[in-house]
Write a structure and sequence with these properties.
- The chain is built from four helices and no strands.
- Helices cover 81% and strands 0% of the residues.
- By secondary structure, it is mainly α.
- The two termini are 30 Å apart.
- It is globular.
- It folds into two domains: 62 residues; 57 residues.
- Keywords: Membrane, Transmembrane, Transmembrane helix.
- This is SirB2 family protein.
- One of its GO terms (cellular component) is plasma membrane.
- It comes from Alteromonas pelagimontana.
- InterPro entries: SirB.
Length: 124
């Protein structure tokens, strides 16, 4: 059961990151693609699977955010990644601001992945 949840989660992580980068590139170079229905719906479906599999893993491992330090860091990292991603894709007013938020989102994502693999929070 654990391996199934872990593989589902890691697959959703990979797809989510791929779609974030792809959507950012489309926003920069071909924004019309982002108006297609599938481009709006698919990322939400994948992110829902990602969240559900994360919750499933928490229950399987009996480790929870706000109790376990590394999971708390991951939760904060994911929220920060979402906010930065929102600015990178939609909210930033300038191209420079969008690129800065995009790069910052990837840095936060990398540090969150590091914590996920090592199970050691960076700043706690």
């Amino acid at each position: 059961m654990y391996m199934m949840a872990k593989h589902l989660h890691l697959t959703a992580v990979g797809l989510s990151i791929f779609l974030f980068v792809l959507r950012f590139m489309w926003a920069q170079f071909n924004p019309a693609i982002l108006q297609k229905k599938w481009a709006k719906v698919v990322p939400h479906i994948i992110d829902t699977v990602l969240l559900a599999s994360a919750i499933w893993l928490c229950f399987l491992l009996s480790q929870y955010p706000l109790v376990t330090g590394w999971l708390t860091f991951k939760l904060i990292g994911v929220v920060l990644y979402i906010v930065l991603g929102l600015f990178a894709l939609k909210k930033a007013k300038t191209a420079q601001g969008r690129w800065l938020c995009f790069i910052a989102a990837l840095v936060v994502l990398a540090s969150t992945a590091h914590v996920a693999f090592t199970k050691q929070p960076l700043f706690f």
